[in-house]
Write a structure and sequence with these properties.
- There is one protein chain.
- This protein has 376 residues and is of the alpha/beta class.
- The protein is 51% helix and 14% strand.
- The protein has 12 helices and 8 strands.
- Strands 3-2-1-4-7-6-8-5 form an 8-stranded mixed beta sheet, sandwiched between helices.
- Helix 3 links the parallel strand 2 (75-82) and strand 3.
- Helix 1 (3-32) packs antiparallel against helix 9 (282-308) and helix 10 packs across helix 12.
- The longest helix has 30 residues, at 3-32.
- The chain is globular and about 75 Å long.
């Protein structure tokens, strides 16, 4: 294969992953997408919160859930303290409400195993999952559970709203997250949504499949199992959870690296993901998740190919890539500068995301199973 052809193949892969596929989903969703039947029946539900060393925040989080506009006699909160070394269990139990239960595990087993333990204690038809650090908008639980009136729906994701970041790449991260939410919404309308927001999502209890210990992306494990059962995953954009942004570029990078490494881990634990005859959303999963793991390699090959291809165009393309990467890296090193220059935050975020994707495979292989929780 000539260097020029290799260059254009790599550019096409990048363009499809970040622009072509989202555009295709928008067009298909407009033509063929449909929404589930919804009815606010107020089904019995249990909100599960897995916590590790969250003594300072857990009581406020429980109160936030109990304050939801939801029938009080149909709402239960289960806090599972995963071998916490502080007073997490005691602080949760101090909430004076009969609807609150606390499951205290004797040792730290990790979020995945903690959720498995919690689900053994749940007897409600619906289960809602959330983390400690978020807060729910009023009416979030009603909006999250209403789509379950449609029997084809097996899981529902809410929408995570992230506060604006103060570091220089915050604008770029925000743009990426808005595009990602739009893409997930389009996939949901086509029945192809295969991931949910770990901050706010719900599941039919009978569709829960135990999560292998140490699994990073429980918020992908569960919806993928729901899809395999023949049910749909929906996105209720009115069910909103609020979270803070990463306080620094380094924290955002570590969060992305962990998530992307988790995708490789899922491929190893669910090899049927790579089988188009076994994966019911193979096209969407491959286009949305897997290709993005390959994009940084395509970018590197495109850079090298443009250096060896003949012609003025490729000399200019090589120089433009070097200039673009240099500017993006400068924006990461000097975040205040990035915040003042148009497009630089987006370029910096793109480079940061793809550098994390580049390192995600070795990070997955080197993942330490003893580091079971990543706190933010």
């Amino acid at each position: 294969m000539s260097a020029a052809l290799l260059f254009w193949c790599c550019i096409a892969l990048v363009a499809y992953a970040y622009a072509g596929y989202p555009l295709l989903m928008t067009l298909l969703a407009r033509r063929y997408g449909h929404s589930p039947f919804e009815h606010d029946d107020g089904e019995h539900l249990t909100v599960v919160i897995a916590a590790f060393d969250e003594e300072a925040r857990i009581a406020a989080r429980v109160h936030d859930i109990l304050d939801q506009d939801y029938p009080a006699d149909r709402l239960r909160v289960l806090v599972v303290s995963d071998g916490s070394r502080d007073g997490t269990a005691r602080a949760a139990a101090s909430v004076d409400d009969a609807r609150v239960a606390v499951l205290e595990l004797p040792r730290n087993v990790g979020k995945a195993a903690a959720l498995n333990a919690a689900l053994r204690e749940v007897d409600s038809e619906l289960v809602v999952f959330t983390d400690v650090r978020q807060r729910f908008a009023p009416g979030a639980l009603r909006a999250l559970t209403a789509p379950f009136a449609d029997p084809s729906i097996g899981a529902v994701s809410g929408e995570l709203m992230i506060a604006a970041a103060e570091h220089g790449t915050g604008e770029g991260v925000g743009l990426y997250w808005r595009m990602e939410k739009r893409l997930r919404s389009d996939e949901a309308r086509l029945g192809w949504l295969h991931g949910v927001s770990g901050s706010i999502h719900a599941l039919r209890r009978r569709l829960f499949v135990p999560i292998p210990a140490g699994t990073v992306l429980d918020d992908m494990w569960m919806p993928l199992q729901v899809l395999r059962s023949g049910h749909r995953v929906w996105m209720a954009r009115e069910a909103v959870a609020f979270d803070r942004a990463s306080v620094s570029v380094d924290e955002e990078f570590q969060r992305k690296l962990r998530t992307l490494a988790g995708n490789w881990q899922l491929v190893a634990r669910l090899p049927w993901l790579l089988n188009p005859f076994a994966n019911p959303v193979f096209f969407a999963w491959c286009s949305h998740k897997f290709l993005r793991l390959l994009v940084p390699w395509a970018l590197l090959i495109a850079l090298a190919a443009s250096a060896f291809a003949e012609g003025t165009f490729y000399r200019v393309a090589f120089g433009a890539q070097l200039l673009g990467y240099g500017g993006a890296l400068g924006g990461l090193v000097l975040p205040r500068l990035a915040a003042r220059m148009p497009l630089l935050p987006a370029a910096s975020s793109f480079v940061m995301l793809n550098f994390a994707a580049l390192l995600s495979l070795p990070a997955s292989l080197a993942m330490d199973p003893s580091r079971l929780w990543k706190k933010h």
